[in-house]
Design a protein that fits this description.
13 helices, 10 strands, alpha/beta, 10-stranded mixed beta sheet, 362 residues
């Protein structure tokens, strides 16, 4: 998802409009309609972002991931049952259905770089004046893939899930794989160097860190380490409770926790006047408010065409609808209308996972 921070909003939107394959008037109007429209169950604009699940396959088994962890004793309620990889032809079909979309996010529950046609997809999106964003573990980011990224003038962002500054800490976060840490660091540095050499007009290189009570005091070191790597941005993400042992809600960061709040204020001062942009985590509040925008902005699609609206917990499922069966109408189908009604109406109760999500407790 494209996020605008502080005074970056106007600058980035202008850059998106005037770049070589910049946004069309129709795409800009679509964003404007999204911004000014009141929330309704049936929307008169296209999704702003398409979140594409290129593959369910992953080369990691991260302990905090509900889809690939070995720690879950029973299947997570919103588990995404593996489906076939997205084909290039199906991707083109989806993009052609929603020509007013501005951003394609390649993410999902697998590792996108395992898909052999990922960059062909991104190139096709560019041909339709759309921008691409990649969320990856970074282990497969070799020279060839870096060149494909830099050859695409509309590659907006590459975000690497890093979570550590030492092999030991990396092993705790990512499947016990100490030996891969140095490879990932090399890949990030290589991308930074080649981006500078090629003078890519748009690309932002980000690293992310899932933060919780057990690792929050590593945040300053992570900021300094990421700065030395040459990353443009750091994104700290508050822990999501998927019912995994050691990663439950007790370890999430809450505003009412005075020690966490004090350290959070320290972090705010620590990141001031730094070259690197830092997105600090959103702290949980006790009060639940219906603030989530996902179902009004984004459409998630897996390789079988199953859809979803949530980008945090509720992954695409057959019962939510299918873009290849319903076509463009899937964006306003009964599931999306039901979920939007829940967020619009003060009388409708949120699903349990939404009550425990930072989107509605910030």
């Amino acid at each position: 998802m494209i996020k605008f921070h502080n005074n970056e909003k106007i600058k980035k939107f202008i850059k998106l409009f005037f770049s070589k394959n910049g946004l069309t008037v129709q795409q800009i109007l679509n964003v404007v309609i999204y911004k000014i429209s009141p929330k309704r169950t049936i929307l008169n604009y296209d999704p702003v972002t398409l979140i594409i699940y290129p593959t369910d396959r992953c080369n990691y088994q991260c302990p905090f991931c509900p889809h690939h962890t070995r720690l879950l004793k029973e299947k997570y309620p919103y588990f995404h049952e593996p489906v076939e990889d997205f084909t290039l032809e199906k991707f083109k079909q989806v993009v052609d259905l929603f020509p007013k979309t501005i951003l394609i996010t390649f993410a999902g529950v697998g590792e996108p770089l395992l898909h052999p046609q990922l960059f062909d997809m991104a190139d096709y999106a560019t041909s339709k004046n759309m921008y691409s964003q990649l969320i990856t573990n970074g282990s497969l980011l070799d020279d060839e893939k870096i060149e494909r990224i830099l050859d695409n003038p509309n590659f907006y962002s590459v975000s690497v899930s890093l979570n550590a500054i030492t092999p030991e800490k990396y092993a705790q976060s990512f499947d016990g794989r100490r030996e891969i840490f140095e490879k990932v660091i090399f890949n990030i540095k290589n991308l930074v160097t080649k981006k500078r050499e090629r003078k890519h007009p748009l690309l932002e290189i980000a690293v992310s860190f899932v933060i919780h009570k057990k690792n929050i005091f590593q945040a300053k070191s992570f900021i300094e380490f990421s700065e030395k790597l040459g990353a443009d941005r750091i994104t700290f993400l508050n822990l999501i409770d998927f019912g995994i042992s050691g990663f439950e809600k007790e370890n999430q960061l809450y505003e009412k926790d005075l020690e966490i709040k004090r350290y959070f204020e320290e972090l705010k001062n620590f990141v001031k006047n730094r070259k690197i942009k830092v997105d600090l985590p959103v702290l949980f509040k006790d009060k639940i408010e219906k603030k989530c925008q996902w179902f009004f902005k984004n459409l998630s699609i897996d390789g079988a065409g199953n859809v979803g609206g949530c980008g945090r917990v509720m992954n695409p499922q057959p019962e939510y609808g299918n873009v290849f069966r319903e076509g463009k109408n899937v964006w306003n189908n009964s599931y999306f209308q039901k979920m939007r009604k829940i967020f619009i109406s003060p009388h409708e109760e949120l699903p349990e996972c939404c009550k425990n999500c930072v989107e509605n407790r910030c």
